[in-house]
């Protein structure tokens, strides 16, 4: 574990003891990362700002559960942020269902050059491995994770029958795992 | 894909689908039931969670506007923002006039200034098994905190640090507890008011005290300060 991870772990541990200063420290260290996730998922800054509040309220209340879940501290925080943003996105879609072929939905989800640079600097294995998949399969993985798209959404998007798309994506996920290693 | 059995492939695919949120609600429930009883499966899911989260970790950072942090603190700790200005804003509505409110505030303030001599406070800071007992006497006027070690000494090569825990505030260090039987600490002026009714706690720390400024572990002895 890197020293930064150890620091974040300590902040979470202190938050679990009710240390409010630790919350400020954790916010300073992680909010730009978690806000980026909320913005990316929700594609709406105002809503991402509300989501970010909820995310830190959740982190504060669940800090005492961190130790037992076995994830690295950043992954734990990212998962809380991503799941909350996806829940909001799904609620928004239910509230005003928009056809999936709307212009916004066709936004290209492949990483921008800026994102690619950031990814490269982090030597992100996942991005390397996604690049080895067929582009639309990598795109489907990103859409599921960062846009909360379901098999139904993906089947419609790629014009593939529902039963086929699951086989199609599962095969890609296994390839991804082979590339990522154990 | 020859290195996996069909079962292993199925597990990997399921774990990935779960992490990506692709399972139906019924499938998710069945998945979570298995997760609860199958540690190997749990480890597999943790690996997928780490790898997939890296996708989000690779996004370029975006700094949220400063007001967001303030909003979070207001939601979590509403009492933090209740300063005089806020009370001045609320009281007039309660008693029907701004001037009346000011008078009430003034007299309350004066009343506080002319309070009768404050009592002395005492605490018995003790471990549950009695292996460490330290009596503490606090004089709020001088800020003197007298410690009387009745049982227990620090472990060899370790220090014992004394903390004040007042309400919801994070623990504040009052210093190291000297090894001697009798000792005297001075509580900084800014902390004296918080001592009354506060909780004193002792933690086991590296020599010289906690390097982080917050307790390294759970207290080994606690006791609350009450008026004696």
UniProtKB/TrEMBL annotation, chain A:
Protein name: RNA polymerase sigma factor, sigma-70 family
PANTHER family: RNA POLYMERASE ECF-TYPE SIGMA FACTO, RNA POLYMERASE SIGMA FACTOR SIGZ
GO biological process, any: DNA-templated transcription initiation
GO molecular-function term, one example from the UniProt record: sigma factor activity
Domain called RNA polymerase sigma factor 70 region 4 type: residue spans: 125-176
InterPro entries named in the record: RNA_pol_sigma-70-like (IPR039425), RNA_pol_sigma-70_dom (IPR014284), RNA_pol_sigma70_r2 (IPR007627), RNA_pol_sigma70_r4_t2 (IPR013249), RNA_pol_sigma_r2 (IPR013325), RNA_pol_sigma_r3/r4-like (IPR013324), WH-like_DNA-bd_sf (IPR036388)
Stated family: Belongs to the sigma-70 factor family. ECF subfamily.
Signal peptide: none
TrEMBL record, chain B:
Disordered: annotated segments: 204-228
This protein's GO CC annotations: plasma membrane
Subcellular location: Cell membrane; Membrane
Keywords: Cell membrane, Membrane, Transmembrane, Transmembrane helix
GO function term, MF aspect, one: sigma factor antagonist activity
Entry protein name: Regulator of SigK
Protein origin, superkingdom: Bacteria
Residue intervals of the Anti-sigma K factor RskA C-terminal domain: 99-217
Single Gene Ontology BP annotation: regulation of translation
Membrane topology annotation: Single-pass membrane protein
Transmembrane segment boundaries: 88-108
């Amino acid at each position: 574990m890197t020293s930064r991870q150890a620091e974040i772990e300590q902040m979470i541990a202190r938050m679990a003891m009710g240390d409010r200063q630790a919350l400020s420290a954790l916010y300073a260290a992680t909010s730009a990362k978690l806000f980026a996730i909320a913005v990316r998922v929700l594609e709406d800054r105002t809503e991402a700002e509300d989501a970010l509040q909820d995310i830190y309220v959740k982190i504060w209340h669940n800090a005492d559960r961190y130790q037992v879940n076995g994830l690295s501290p950043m992954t734990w925080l990212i998962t809380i942020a991503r799941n909350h943003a996806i829940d909001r996105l799904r609620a928004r879609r239910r509230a005003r269902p928009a056809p999936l072929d709307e212009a916004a939905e066709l936004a290209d989800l492949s990483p921008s050059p800026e994102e690619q640079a950031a990814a490269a600097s982090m030597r992100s294995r996942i991005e390397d491995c996604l690049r080895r998949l067929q582009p639309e399969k990598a795109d489907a993985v990103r859409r599921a994770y960062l846009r909360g798209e379901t098999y139904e959404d993906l089947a419609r998007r790629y014009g593939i029958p529902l039963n086929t798309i699951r086989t199609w994506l599962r095969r890609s996920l296994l390839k991804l795992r082979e590339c990522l290693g154990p | 894909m020859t290195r996996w059995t069909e079962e292993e492939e199925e597990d990997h695919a399921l774990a990935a689908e779960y992490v990506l949120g692709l399972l139906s609600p019924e499938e998710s429930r069945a998945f979570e039931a298995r997760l609860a009883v199958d540690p190997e499966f749990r480890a597999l899911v943790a690996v997928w969670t780490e790898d997939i989260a890296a996708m989000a970790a690779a996004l370029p950072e975006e700094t949220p506007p400063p007001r967001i942090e303030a909003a979070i603190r207001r939601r979590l700790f509403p009492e933090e923002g209740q300063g005089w200005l806020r009370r001045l804003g609320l009281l007039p509505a309660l008693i029907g006039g701004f001037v009346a409110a000011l008078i009430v505030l003034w007299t309350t303030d004066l009343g506080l200034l002319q309070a009768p001599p404050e009592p002395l406070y005492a605490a018995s800071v003790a471990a549950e098994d009695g292996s460490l007992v330290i009596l503490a006497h606090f004089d709020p006027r001088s800020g003197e905190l007298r410690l009387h070690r009745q049982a227990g000494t620090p472990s060899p090569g370790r220090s014992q640090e004394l903390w004040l825990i007042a309400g919801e505030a994070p623990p504040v260090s009052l210093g190291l507890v000297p090894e001697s039987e009798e000792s005297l600490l001075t509580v900084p002026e800014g902390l004296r008011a918080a001592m009354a009714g506060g909780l004193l706690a002792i933690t086991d720390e590296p020599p010289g005290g906690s390097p982080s400024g917050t307790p390294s572990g759970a207290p080994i002895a606690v006791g609350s300060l009450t008026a004696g």
